Amino acid sequence: MRVPENLSWTDAAATPVALFTAHDALVSIGQLRRGDRVLVQAAASGVGIAALQVARELGASVVLGTAGSSEKLVELARFGLTYGIDYRSEHIGERVLALTNGEGVDVIIDMVGAGAAAANLQAAALGARWVQVGRMAGSVAQIDLDLLSKKRLSLIGVTFRTRNIDEFADVVHGAERDLGPALSAGRFAMPVTRVFGLDEADRAQEFMRKNLHLGKIVLLA
Asked: Taking the model in full, what pTM does it have?
């Protein structure tokens, strides 16, 4: 993917993987349509921040997102978050229904995994697409299949690990087609919290484990 002239190498390093993952999950897999309501679980993660912006750029009517601090949720408003939900103090499923007049969301982008399964089921609208991207809170969950069936939900898992080079190229070309203009115009951006030298990789890992960052941490060679 060609680097737009307005991006520094640091910003360019922070952008592609999150952009490709979010576009693939929302558009290719989640079949995002203009006017859809979207829920992004773990919205402060790199893919989460990308998903907020992809949803906004491609016409979602409401973009909800979860994070573990009110400070992060305030920051996420500039990336397209309509309503933030603090999962430490709010019940996600109930809050989503309250914010959508009881209807729920049409697309769920889930980086949390097992810990969010029950909330995702409750938050989903009839016919919603639940795209399972990451498993930060576990990989094995109990799912109410009766509720899954009643709501006629699609639960779809995604990864790049089992795709061949041609399939990955399709992902890249699709993201560039739909979001290249936004990237070049500065409407899509990935925040970089800290830049470490390559010889500081251990310090970068320790900083990441504290989970205080918003967006990306970059190693500079």
From this structure: 0.94
